[in-house]
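Need a sequence for this fold. Nothing fancy.
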């Protein structure tokens, strides 16, 4: 189930009681999952705080229990009890820390994967060069083999008339 949709206005916040939600964003490279199971407990607060549209599409990936808080309900709760604001701020910070940690882990994984791909590309390039060298050596060997067969054929063709001349010479003696 889509909780928020990228580019659409956000007019509420969702508090995740249990379950998992994935955050995805459409890029030039296609749909990219930014967070999965590390979205934190509050969904939509950043978009709501900037009074804009959703930065990402939030989609449930398991059975979830969500609490929907409209802007009015959130304002009323924050005005009514200062402790609510502190609890919400602490919850939000934990949520953002989790996302940041996951983002940093993904960045490291991306760099490691890029290095591994580059190493494999270098190995593939070396293997291709070795194959090309082997192909050239096989072509040279084939040329020498063909030249050897040609030389043997010429020697055989020259040997027959020479043998006939030697035989005629022996007969004449």
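Here you go.
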């Amino acid at each position: 189930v889509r909780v928020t949709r990228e580019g659409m206005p956000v007019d509420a916040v969702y508090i995740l009681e249990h379950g998992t939600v994935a955050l995805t964003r459409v890029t030039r490279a296609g749909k990219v999952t930014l967070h999965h199971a590390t979205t934190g407990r509050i969904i939509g607060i950043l978009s709501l705080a900037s009074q804009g549209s959703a930065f990402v599409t939030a989609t449930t990936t398991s059975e979830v229990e969500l609490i929907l808080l409209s802007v009015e309900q959130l304002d009323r709760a924050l005005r009514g009890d200062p402790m609510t604001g502190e609890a919400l701020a602490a919850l939000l910070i934990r949520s953002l820390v989790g996302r940041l940690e996951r983002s940093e882990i993904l960045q490291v994984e991306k760099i490691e994967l890029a290095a591994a791909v580059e190493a494999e590309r270098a190995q593939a390039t070396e293997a291709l060069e070795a194959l090309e060298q082997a192909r050239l050596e096989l072509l040279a060997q084939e040329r020498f083999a063909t030249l050897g067969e040609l030389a043997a054929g010429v020697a055989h063709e020259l040997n027959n008339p020479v043998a006939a001349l030697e035989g005629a010479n022996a007969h004449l003696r």
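For context: The chain has a mean pLDDT of 86.
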